[in-house]
Amino acid sequence: MTWQHAGLSSVVGMKQQIRARTKQFSGRMWFDAVTVLVALIFYAVAWPTLHLTHTVPIAVQPFIAALAAFPILLIRINPSLGWAISAGSGMLISLAIPNQPNNELPIQVVHILCLFALLFAVAVRATVPIIGVAWVATSLLLGTTMSSGDLGSSAWGWPIALGAVVLFGLLVRWLVLSRQQLVRQEEENEVERARRAILEEKARIARDLHDVVAHHMSLVVVQAQTAPYRVADVTPAARAEFESIGATAREALNEIRGMLGVLRSDGQAPEHTPQPKATDVPALFEGALRAGVRIAWTIDGLLETVPDTAGLALYRITQESLSNASRHAPEAAVQVHLRVGPLVELIVRNGPTATVARPVGNGGHGIAGMQARALAAGGDLTAGPHPDGGFEVHARLPLSQTTTLDPVLLGQAAN
Question: What is the mean pLDDT of the chain?
């Protein structure tokens, strides 16, 4: 299922990238086409009218008109460079080329429009320091190169007009950034919804496997172990065959546990996560004590001698027993006796509670799950009310899968 999760995320990401790139390519293509058209119109206006505003030789007029109109071609690629070329050429033209007597503007109107457009693009695309430099420099250029030669009435007019252009560009910039952030958030939400759908499906499959496959496989193990005691005149060969069936079924259960670990994990392989052992059981007692449970425990024997299979079953049974005790009898004291000898014996008993306990069965988990774990490890588990009004869980686990259990206990577990 992990590869399906990764595959679905990759497909969603690729579709989003293709849509985004298609939109960007289409938008850029149209914008560039309009920009070229505007530049050609500016040039077509600047060249024929240049002799009306400035005293320029005929041979130089195409180049001066180009400096006035063509920097706008950089409005998308590099607006800062385009503005620098337009402003620099405007300063050069205002200082080196004289105006016609009836012209008060230092540069052509087309040149001023190009400067306005590039300043707007700088406000949308460039950093704040560059925006500030462009605004101040453009204000000085247009405010100090009038025919009067000083700031005069243009001292505040041009800065205010250019400031309005800059503010409008910053507003557009903020709107564009907000829109991009909204699109990114929607894409992330779409990926998250797909991931949650996969995790929910994985959890459903894990529940089905746990409630169906593991349950029936546990019955196969129990039947194989109890068959020599329930069937008369079982030959040694048949007994060995039953033991082989039980061992094979237990191996299948172990593989099912690994599959359940993959299905219930969130992208992390289960083999990369250490499985709990018998030596980790005392940590459960200490954690319950820190959580406020009135718990007392005794441990006889060495937990290090418990093999991994029985240790994992012991840990999960203890964990579920303490959870049930704290959930169904939150005010009761809990006593735990753990003994490691020829068998691993666990007794978890809680006293009576003042409140009415809820039903302990939950359709495949709880006690049924603990019994399945005990049977899969070759042991048995009983659970029920205690004479003092409390509840007791009693588990017996062999130290090896070939350990022979008491026939009476195995018959009770089968029933």
Answer: 78
> 335: helix, coil or strand?
strand
The CA distance from 338 to 280, in Å, is: 13
What does the block give as tokens for 337?
């006796």
Pairwise CA distance, residues 136 & 121, whole Å:
15
- CA-based R_g, the chain, Å: 41
The total of other beta-carbon atoms located within 10 Å of residue 96's CB is: 8
What is the tens place of the pLDDT at every residue in 300-348? 999 999 988 889 899 989 988 888 887 778 778 899 999 998 899 999 9
Between strands 295-300 and 391-398, the pairing is unpaired
Please answer whether residues 321 and 348 qualify as being in contact, where contact means their C-beta atoms are separated by less than 8 angstroms.
Answer: yes
Task: Tell me the C-alpha to C-alpha distance, in Å, between residue 270 and each of 47, 146, 367.
Answer: 75, 77, 24
Dihedral, 373, 215, 413, 224 alpha carbons, nearest 10 = -100
343-350 and 391-398 strand pairing: antiparallel
- List all residues 6 or more positions away from 151 whose beta carbon is below 8 Å from its beta carbon: 143, 144
Rounded CA separation 52/47 (Å)? 10
- What backbone phi and psi angles, to 5 degrees, belong to 34? -65, -40
Residue with tokens 């620099």: 88
